[in-house]
TrEMBL record:
A GO CC term assigned to this protein in UniProt: membrane
A Pfam family it matches: OprB
Protein name: Carbohydrate porin
Family, similarity comment: Belongs to the OprB family.
Keyword match rRNA-binding: no
Organism in which the protein naturally occurs: Gluconacetobacter asukensis
GO biological process: carbohydrate transport
Domain of life: Bacteria
InterPro entries the UniProt entry points to: Carb-sel_porin_OprB, OprB_Porin, OprB_sf
């Protein structure tokens, strides 16, 4: 067993590492900005030559435009919303509800509902105080519901409802609270505050078309680690993104490591919870092929978490051992192969990816996925979309399954083993069709099939039927 002195030693080591985190961020910024200014002077070729935002290529290039964000508001409410935006105050209210039921398999038949109401306020300080290319963002959510994965599948890793997880049932949870500054028309962007690796590393919004949690909007293997925060978890962050050429970008990030990632309300920022620093590096290539502008996104990267991690305890052991450092590495892509419309995602898109996490200290060490999207396949319905995704997960060594056999289990064993049942691997198939009902309103029936729920191989395969409702005000 680990002694109290050893545990205190690990905590003190982590505090010493995180005490200098703000100074480290400022030092990095001071070192790189002269080089950035010099590079900007040598590459800026005039108005319109540079992207307006970093990870999207502007309309004046050959890259297709993104789909518009439509709102449910009409009439006087819509005019009030637009008036605020013209003054630099952008307000977004988003309601997301999901229902899922277990048709067969698992440990029992059940159905659960989960929902989220999000409010985001973006302030454009160019319009407010004439500070160019400077914005601030604050986002909060209210979350409610239950997890079908633990209620009916004995699976604590992948939930059929993607929006229920971090934050749990909470009246208000603070998500983002950060500032962003752009240079060179968005070719260089610095983001600092309560942010996360989630939007910039091993992530894609295309992975959230399907309802399940396996890949939205990043593979589940990444979100289980302390050093990788994703919605609605955040950490103190500093992130620099640079686009050296139109189709390429590189991203650097430094983040605090905190197992609680803001806590239940998202406001638990105490230094006692900091265990280390996560450094991230990634890059991507975003080409456009042929006269039909078939766009693609190819990316790779890694994240290193300096905090202490306990090795997965062997079933016959019981002694906890520690190591410092955990590595996440990933590759991912999506490529349009057939165009249906003029938006960036209007067409048939194939996607895939692979993530690896340091095995001996990880719950899930490897995850691979492939997917097929077909957006706007019917004339007159450009925002309808079909999504198919298959994902497989391999657990780290010595990870105990949530479900353990007993003499009264639904699959009883003549002799209950003395050693706990371990998890090894599982796979999930997810199929959905999104109906765009009107501006700001979408509804998507969804079907999922779980092979080996929870990874033990002892819980029967499960078929899940659900529906996903989304409204933007």
């Amino acid at each position: 067993m680990v002694s109290r002195a050893d545990t205190v030693g690990h905590i003190l080591h982590a505090r010493r590492a995180t005490r200098f985190f703000p100074a480290f961020v400022l030092l990095v910024a001071a070192m790189i900005m002269p080089a950035v200014r010099s590079w900007a002077q040598s590459t800026n070729t005039g108005p319109g030559a540079l992207p307006e935002i970093l990870n999207a290529i502007p309309p004046e290039s050959n890259y297709p435009p993104p789909p518009p964000v439509t709102h449910l508001l009409q009439g006087e409410a819509a005019r009030w919303h637009d008036s605020l935006a013209n003054k630099g105050v952008n307000l977004l209210i988003d309601d997301w509800s999901e229902f899922a039921g277990n048709l067969s398999g698992g440990t029992r038949k059940a159905q659960d509902f989960a929902g989220q109401v999000a409010v985001e306020v973006d302030l454009d300080w160019d319009r407010i105080l004439h500070i160019p290319d400077f914005t601030t963002t604050i986002t909060a959510v209210q979350r409610h519901g239950r997890r079908l994965s633990t209620d009916a599948l004995q699976d604590g890793i992948v939930n059929p409802e993607q929006i229920y997880g971090g934050g749990g049932n909470v009246v208000i949870h603070l998500v983002y609270f950060y500032a962003q500054k752009k240079w060179m028309h968005g070719r260089v962007i610095l983001t600092m505050g309560r942010y996360a690796p989630g939007p910039d590393f091993d992530s894609s919004p295309l992975q959230c078309l399907v309802m399940g949690q396996a890949t939205c909007s990043q593979p589940r293997a990444t979100t289980l680690t302390d050093g990788y925060s994703s919605w609605p978890g955040t950490a103190w962050s500093a992130m620099l993104r640079v686009r050296p050429t139109v189709p390429t970008y590189i991203t650097f990030g430094a983040y605090e490591t905190s197992p609680i990632k803001g806590g239940t309300a998202g406001t638990d920022w105490g230094g006692d919870h900091m265990t280390g620093v996560t450094l991230a590096f990634g890059g991507g290539y975003e080409p456009v092929f042929g006269p039909h502008r078939l766009n693609g996104h190819y990316k790779a990267g890694m994240l290193w978490d300096s905090s202490p991690h306990a090795y997965n305890v062997p079933a016959a052991d019981g002694v906890t051992r520690w190591r410092h450092g955990q590595m996440i590495s990933y590759i991912a892509f999506d490529q349009m192969v057939l165009r249906n419309g003029h938006y960036s995602d209007s067409g048939v898109i194939v996607q895939g990816g692979y993530t690896h996490v340091t095995s001996a200290i990880s719950v899930v060490s490897d995850q691979a996925y492939v997917g097929l999207l077909d957006v706007g396949q019917f004339p007159g319905r450009p925002r309808d979309a079909l999504g198919l995704t298959w994902s497989t997960l391999r657990y780290g060594p010595n990870v105990k399954s949530i479900w353990q056999p007993t003499a009264t289990s639904f699959t009883p064993d003549p002799l209950v083993p003395d050693l706990p049942l371990l998890a090894s691997h599982e796979a999930i198939f997810d199929a959905t069709y999104n109906f765009h009902l009107r501006d700001g309103v979408d509804i998507a029936p969804d079907f999922q099939y779980f092979w080996r729920p929870g990874g033990s191989g002892r819980v029967p395969n499960a078929a899940i039927l659900g529906v996903n409702f989304h409204a933007i005000l």
